[in-house]
Amino acid sequence: KTRVYRFGNKVADGNSKMKNLLGGKGANLAEMSAIGIPVPPGFTITTEVCTEYNLLGEVAVIDMIRDEVEASITNIETLMGTRFGDKDNPLLVSVRSGARVSMPGMMDTVLNLGLNDEVVLGLAKKTNNEQFAWDSYRRFIQMYGGVVLGMKPASKDDIDPFEEIMENLKGKRGIQLDTEFTVQDLKDLVYDFKEAVKKQTGHSFPTNPWEQLWGAIIAVFNSWNGDRAVYYRNMNGYPADWGTAVNVQAMVYGNMGNSSATGVCFTRDAGTGENVFNGEYLINAQGEDVVAGVRTPQQITVLGSKRWAELAQISEEDRKENYPSLEEVMPGLFKELDGYQQKLEKHYRDMQDMEFTIQEGKLWILQTRNGKRTGAGMVKIAMDLLNEGLIDEKEALLRIEPNKLDELLHPVFDPKALKRAHVIAQGLPASPGAATGKIVFFADEAAKFKNSILVRIETSPEDLEGMHIAKGILTARGGMTSHAAVVARGMGKCCISGAGALKINYKARTLTVDGHEYHEGDWISLNGSTGNIIEGKVETVEPELSGEFAEIMKLSDKYAKMKVRTNADTPKDAKIARTFGAEGIGLTRTEHMFFEVDRIKAMREMILADTVKGRKQALQDLLPMQRSDFEGIFEAMEGLPVTIRLLDPPLHEFVPHQLATQKELAEEMHISLQAVKNKVAELEEFNPMLGHRGCRLGNTYPEITEMQTRAIIEAALNLKERGIICKPEIMVPLVGTVDEFIAQECIIRETANAIFEERNDKVEYSVGTMIEVPRAALLADKIAEHADFFSFGTNDLTQMTFGYSRDDAGKFLPIYIQKGILKVDPFEVLDQEGVGQLVQLGTERGRSIKPNLKVGICGEHGGEPSSVEFCYNTGMNYVSCSPYRVPIARLVSAQATI
Ligand code: PEP
Ligand code: MG
């Protein structure tokens, strides 16, 4: 079995299809090398070795790969003409993680490996650059110390132990920047760093390059199980047994003087999707300098540079003088880079995110991967690639991540409110969207307020969880490719980076701009599309959807076979859903119409009535309200089917539980307070979710079903008179036995017939049932003899199949998920293994009686991608979901057919 794969000099053992074995990075390096892109030579230790390491431990694994690793280092030595550990002509290497999917910054990296007190002298002599050699050495000790030897800050308020030594020296020397250190300063730093290591760890810093290499390889394996990586894996549902590969590669340097540089670039705009090559670079710098945001990075292209200068309000003269683009500074190398980016995008047929280094006039590509992008970027890039002929329609659809569409549907700032807004500063529009919230300065405090904006000098992978919780992210440092920017775009979270005007004081928890001080808890708003930072809270409105979005939806409809309806309780929701492409309503929860103030009174009178006569009187008052609601909904959904569900929740939800409201009600109804109290007590249930609800209400109080049927049928007749066609589907909830359904159906049909006679007119309607009690799924064939349609209520079906109360599951489900007892929340993602069996069986048994039985789903799962796919595979006619999920369901419905 091969455990180590080599690449370099336009050949490679692996290729891009071997992501599972070589990790994304390793597979891409192999592929790039094979297609003639200049990557520094190196080798990849497979992800399987990581798993072996987790099982067998360090000693056994090193034994297993020692020969292969040693031979592969020799191969790099030959290709680079250098020698590992040689004090005259040293080879230095980088050691990086690389899982099968990109996990930016979640795992560890060590650069400049192979340096020691002797090698550093050789490096200085060879490059004729003492400054560079000693700077590399101090960076190496710093990184290796942190990653391999565990030299970390003691707590979050503490400064990194190496940073502290550097800050002290800067103070002593009266300098500000790392670049101002003299050679002697760097030598002193190296000495002090090594002393600090010895003091904190009890061991000397390792001087043998081989010992360094094995230490780094093991540290990268360990970082797969580090806190950050585990959190990221859990957030994205990546299993622990994937493991990470380790990539060892010859170092090339962007910091060997002014003919050297390093940068990050994208073949298209990751924010908007626009087809423009863009990115950032720094002359005489190492990769991490661009991302860490210590220096202001410059743009790769002239176009990008000019756009950047405009945002930063920098004059053209100033720009040319101080921030020129790579295209202007190194035109020949820019052209070469431009050639590679075009070649790579064509090769991978997707937007690439690349890292490059120029070492003394020679360009090296360090990495390429499919770039992370915003939801808007994703849609535009997919449509553009389709129109450019790089991918076909099916591929374009598959390029859309369903959940990311969500970002496009979310609110933006109200243009009217924006006019009044006070912009306090501007940063880079790192990730679009609108966010408004209260300032927090620490990632682990992001949950302190319901809506928070995380304000940091810069972010680091440690901040991931807080970035996830915060509504938006604002950093004072860092460019468009900084950690904050890249991670935020991946999360679809609004982010502004590099707002240099902000002075952030973590200790005092203040943010100062132009002499004005803002504190923790103050409201601010971020416009991630323009980079504007706005004082206070700004109202938001619904977004306008782009042309590309509409095109993707049109394409979805071309391929989709299953329909998408919406769950809507009001004409307003129905209208929104229709603009998102809903093809009808799959569920109107009629009880939601009773919660309004003036209605709840009538409802309460109905519930408190002692006699049938009293109840009928109260229902008479409710009738016109329901009828007009239904008219509104039918009108909004003109011509499309509308499923209306009869009253479902337990009655006690409607009665007043507070003394003051009880008194008020007693007065209004001219009954005693005690009578009200008695009724409330009488309705009390131990387990309301399994109590007197659903069709059990309609069967014990048939007047309710009568009134609701009347409202539905009369509304339909009224619209018919106005020439509007509607197709009501009356749905009976929580049926468990066929007789429960038959009893309700009788009332519905009798009522409808009576109205048809009264009005001497007719409308078509159907009567169906929800399948949400396991018994109904089991007896679906019996029920199908009577019901016109089925709609799976997977919320209740999940509750009753698992035996988890919907109202109480919040107490233990998070712990179950944390402990891995459940992989996901079954109320969010349909449990295909268990609940899914009932759905499948219910559908089959129903259709064994009525082969054309219309079957749908209206539980919350109807808008969750994996569940929608399952519904398609089960043969459902439609899924129904909340209005904002409709586009997602349409897309998945199409993807499921591909
Ligand atoms: C269901 O149970 O899945 C359903 C749609 O009904 P409700 O959530 O109103 O109980
Ligand atoms: Mg239900």
From TrEMBL:
Function: Catalyzes the reversible phosphorylation of pyruvate and phosphate.
Sequence ranges assigned to domain PEP-utilising enzyme mobile in this UniProt record: 450-531
Any Pfam family the entry gives: PEP-utilizers_C
Keywords: ATP-binding, Kinase, Magnesium, Metal-binding, Nucleotide-binding, Pyruvate, Transferase
Annotated ranges, domain PEP-utilising enzyme C-terminal: 546-896
Entry-linked InterPro entries: ATP_grasp_subdomain_1, PEP-util_enz_mobile_dom, PEP_util_AS, PEP_util_C, PEP_util_CS, Phosphohistidine_dom_sf, PPDK_AMP/ATP-bd, Pyruvate_phosphate_dikinase
Gene of this entry: ppdK
One example GO MF annotation: pyruvate, phosphate dikinase activity
Protein family (similarity comment): Belongs to the PEP-utilizing enzyme family.
SUPFAM superfamilies, A to Z: Glutathione synthetase ATP-binding domain-like, Phosphoenolpyruvate/pyruvate domain, Phosphohistidine domain
Enzyme class (EC, first level): transferase
Keyword Transferase: yes
Species of the source: Aestuariibaculum lutulentum
Pyruvate phosphate dikinase AMP/ATP-binding domain boundaries: 20-53, 65-387
EC number: 2.7.9.1
PANTHER family in the record: PHOSPHOENOLPYRUVATE DIKINASE-RELATED, PYRUVATE, PHOSPHATE DIKINASE 1, CHLOROPLASTIC
Segment forming the signal sequence: none
Entry cofactors: Mg(2+)
Protein name according to UniProt: Pyruvate, phosphate dikinase
Reaction catalysis annotation: pyruvate + phosphate + ATP = phosphoenolpyruvate + AMP + diphosphate + H(+)
Domain of life: Bacteria
